[in-house]
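Hello Y.,

Per our agreement to keep a running log of every chain we model this quarter, I'm adding this entry. I've kept the format consistent with earlier entries: sequence first, then predicted structure.
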Amino acid sequence: MEDKLYILFLEDNLLDVELEVAALEEEGIKCVWERVDESEAFLREIEKPYDLIIADHNLPTFDGITAVRLLRQRGIDTPLIFVSGTVGEETAIESLKAGATDYVLKERLSRLGPVARRALREYKEQIILKQTQEALIESELKGRSIFEGALDAIVIIDPASGQIIEMNPATARILGYRRAELIGKHFSIFFPSSSLLSSGRMLEELQLHGALFDSQDILCADGSLCPVDMSVSMIPWGKHSAILALLRDVTERKQSEAALRESKQRYEELVNSIEGIVWECDPLTFQFSFVSRQAERLLGYPVDSWLADADFWPDHLHKDDRDWVIETCKRATLERRNHEFEYRMIAADGRLVWLRDIVSVAADNGHPVKARGVMVDITHGKQAEEERKRLEEQLLQAQKMESIGRLAGGVAHDFNNLLTAIIGYSQLVLARMGQEDNFRKEIEEVLRAGQRAASLTSQLLAFSRRQKLERKVISINDTINNIVKMLGRIIGEDVTIQVRVAAGQPLIFADPSQIEQVLLNLAVNARDAMPGGGSLTIETDNVEFDDDQCRRHLWAKPGRFTRLMVKDSGTGMDGETLKRIFEPFFTTKESGKGTGLGLSVVYGVVKQHDGLINVLSEPGRGTCFEIYFTLHGEEAREESDQKSLPARGGKETILVAEDEESLQNLTRKILTKLGYRVLMASDGAEALEMFEANREEIALVILDMVMPQVSGREVYLRLRASGSDVPVIFMTGYSADVVDTNFVDSLGIPLLHKPYDINELAHRVRAALDQAGEAKGNTPTA
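Predicted structure for the entry above:
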């Protein structure tokens, strides 16, 4: 048959009451109950015969300790159990001292049924004891069997002398004293010297409250301490009064409490050892009821801040994440679904912290009652992921630029052969025309167009980093000072130029003409970004990158550099434009206003000099190009200008190896017009045959570096292997890396780059022949 209890709940949360009733019913206790949440209603209800009172410790206008005291002051002995989620050890002890029967944590409601049964059992025993007291009063302990059969120790004390005048057998059993050892002894024999209880205080409490309830450690006969709950009251004793002390052994309960504290401590240590933030909250209001100490370590906010305000967590979410995070949580809660998601919070010091929140939702009868989870700091992982994405973008950009560079280099070679013919034939035609010839202007336009096209192919080669450099140790400050006047004429009077150079003479190993080209292109780019005028600033300084800086700036590399900065106050660029500014033929100007090669050339020159380039720009805030060249330790050397010898012809025999038919005819005509005898070979193999057949007559060999079957380099090596020291000139329309200019430079052989004009070819041929004649002691041909 099920027990039926009449229970009064002192609780402001109806949901908590329902959960507690459910816990009792799971223990087989059928409940008839009422709920109150303020003092007046409580005082009315306690006049009714309830079997049990279950109270929350903290209510909005009332607290459990006061409720217990009100109850006991009115002489009502109904058992009262605290059920609370916040009660600590000190508070629990205080509540027991005030007269509470026991306490249960809300997170362990499974204990409520057993605790309630024990409280009721003890209450019945107290009724028996009370009945015993009444029997003792009425019959002066005539009901000796009840007195002696009580499970708790009962001691009668003379209030005047404090001597023990009677005790029951349970006293000897619990404390180990024989009756003869206690009768006539002062009751202080039970208390160690450190006890705060005294006879004076006992009498004061009895006079003030009529009863004394306390928890004490009683001194046993063997010197050990026994924890007891002590109830002291005044009773009639013969013609006088006596003190009745009931001592209940609570050793078992104390051990349970100690085990509970130890378990709680282990739980807290375990929770606080987890790297993430362990938490519990109301799933709909986000009022936190528990947060582990990691919250303060990871985010800097004290635990109390999390628990104090339901708006704490939403208020510290990143503004871009707040709405969707809250919506996600509420939707998952209503669906009673566990979930996991990532979001950002703002730490106490302003840091942005990425968290992965792993959430479980606890429900009761289909209603979500708690959300619990762990917040894990994934900031480093997110930063690593972002860095990986940046590196991937950087790699893709580098691969794209390299592919465009290879394409540009190949296109430049093909155009160089065509442009050599266009420029050469235009010059030949012009040489035959008089100044008043009707078609001279048209041919001159053809020549100018060919030369402009040759300039474009040169820029393509600069972008692809395949042009030949003439590098030497130079002062970048001197280079800037030499070109700044020319820049003023180019960019116009409405742009102010400011130059701030580093102290001393920062030296770099570079091709001065290419560095001037970089400055020129950047100045023109700045001018176009300031149509209404503005300021252009050119600065240099020395910087050093270490490994840490290189990790923060992915485009950097360790070392000491001279930094060249070109800043303008122009329109600036957005992110999409910045990604493409170095691509050949990409331009933001309207059609016909630019080739889109200026910044491509800058990029190519910097990269070919093993330099670094970084661009800082925002719309409306101007642009800053930062270029870094490795510092060089040697002093700059001035090179004397060598004047070219006048281009002259001659009567020597020249062997030319050229696989392009149009260039064969052009070269033959140019050299024949200068008086030379020309032997023309269409490839390397034919060139070797013709040389062997005319070995004694040939004074010079001109070789295209790249030809089918046998290359120009192979022809040269075979000529030298045959013992011939005939002078050689190489020519090519390919880029420097394809033809291996290091091989050419190491031998000191002239290299003629296509497209070339008549004067350049004539000068190179004559210079090579004269140098060979001087070496043999011959007089140069007039």
